[in-house]
Design goal:
Structural class: alpha/beta
Strand order of the largest sheet: 7-2-1-9-10
Shape: globular
CATH superfamily of the largest domain: Malonyl-Coenzyme A Acyl Carrier Protein, domain 2
């Protein structure tokens, strides 16, 4: 059975014309851009479709533009294919897209946040003060050492992105970045200056991080439909309460994309679909893994391949996600309110491992779960919810979602009723 991850690109993927073809063909994509126009109060659609690349690249514009393009692509993907991922991840800004599409942040709220985020980042480093550069063909430890040696109190440079084993990005004051790139070139490194309007993921973003933290506290955050991987840790979020902390820390911390891809590979993910403009992440997946096969939903040929790949044996693109898979995801995504470690180990960790073993056996034998296995998974998840002290209303919502999405409600007509 295929295990799917959805990936969302960050800044650098913007291009004039982004989303235009999608909107021509799919009304849901056009509606997504119209929503963005209304929330933002200006014509984002026109800027993306026929605007000026310099204007589009300004971080306060690029961020809501990339978010909107990714959400539009996600909505088209769900309406056309509809196979839910076992994990999702976004690169830098793309983490907001991943959180939005997983239901943790409302699209309207995410637009407002990233628009402000872009302004905060631009204000934190005046035009021309900072820069970023991608470095290849040299060990990352040498890059880290050179950054440390070249930084001063008034002129800093540090690693901002661990994108792939052979691609590391540095960020900071322009003169410090220039010193490091010059030294690394002499050691055989290849340098690619990045067209960005601020030195992202560096300590120069601390003022922006403080403002972002204050801004994000104005909004509500919801449970995840599936696990989202954090750029800061390279691991899935434990619960929505970590969103503000992680997204604030992400402003000054390096993007752990290599760790994120290693995690997906360790979880036996074998398909990744990039949702948004271009194929930046498709290419990065290739650099990080020989096991995960990447596709871009911005490429027509890739869309055809994905549709064919995710078909069931009967030819219908549905039901790839089973009750067992959904229980596994819900166990990870649901907020914990119980800090008794002994209870947590017995009532959460052990049942989760039992569901995971069941899922691994089903995948190894390429089988769908039996009614007995589905029943066991649901009961194990109930134990996890009870131990995490999940309110009964949320439990009912979660179980209804699992049974609805897997089209198994008729098999368990009394399960949700018995929760009351």
């Amino acid at each position: 059975m295929n295990k799917l991850a959805l990936l969302f690109p960050g800044q650098g993927s913007q291009a004039v014309g982004m989303g235009k073809n999608l909107c021509k063909v799919f009304p849901v994509a056009h509606k997504t851009f119209e929503e963005a126009n209304e929330v933002l109060g200006f014509d984002l659609m026109k800027m993306c479709f026929e605007g000026n690349i310099e204007e589009l690249t300004r971080t306060e514009n690029a961020q809501p533009a990339i978010l909107t393009c990714s959400v539009a692509a996600f909505r088209v993907y769900m309406s056309e294919i509809g196979v839910e991922p076992v994990y999702s991840a976004g690169h830098s800004l793309g983490e907001f897209s991943a959180l939005t599409c997983a239901g943790a942040i409302a699209f309207e709220d995410a637009l407002k946040i990233v628009r402000k985020r872009g302004r905060f980042m631009q204000e934190a480093a005046a035009e021309g003060i900072g820069s970023m550069a991608a470095v290849t063909n040299i060990d990352r430890k040498i890059i880290e050492e050179e950054c440390i040696n070249s930084s001063t109190e008034d002129s800093i440079v540090a690693v901002s992105n661990y994108n792939a084993p052979d691609q590391t990005v540095i960020s900071g004051h322009k003169d410090a970045v220039d010193r490091v790139t010059s030294a690394l070139e002499q050691k055989g490194a290849k340098i690619i200056p990045l067209k960005v309007s601020a030195p992202f993921h560096s300590s120069l973003m601390k003022p922006a991080a403080v403002k972002l933290n204050e801004e994000m506290r104005k909004y509500a955050y919801n449970s995840f439909k599936w696990p989202v991987i954090s750029n800061v840790t390279g691991l899935p979020y434990s619960d929505p309460s970590k969103i503000i902390e992680n997204m604030t820390q992400q402003m000054t911390a390096p993007v752990q994309w290599v760790e994120s891809m290693m995690f997906l590979q360790s979880e036996n993910v074998n398909i990744a679909i990039e949702l948004g403009a271009g194929k930046v992440l498709k290419n990065l997946v290739k650099k990080n893994s020989s096991i995960i096969v990447p596709y871009s939903y911005d490429i027509d040929e890739d869309v055809k391949k994905v549709k064919e790949l995710l078909k069931n044996d009967d030819g219908n693109i549905e039901n790839r996600i089973t009750v067992v898979t959904k229980c596994l995801a819900a166990a990870v995504c649901t907020k914990n309110r119980n800090w008794d470690n002994e209870e947590y180990q017995k009532g959460v960790v052990q049942p989760y491992k039992a569901i995971q073993v069941m899922q691994n056996e089903l995948e190894a034998n390429n089988k769908m779960p039996s009614i007995e296995q589905m029943t066991e998974a649901l009961n194990l998840l109930k134990s996890i919810f009870d131990t995490k002290k999940v309110p009964i209303e949320e439990q009912i919502e979660r179980f209804n979602d699992i049974l609805d999405k897997t089209k198994t409600k008729d098999l368990f007509p009394d399960f949700v009723k018995d929760l009351h």
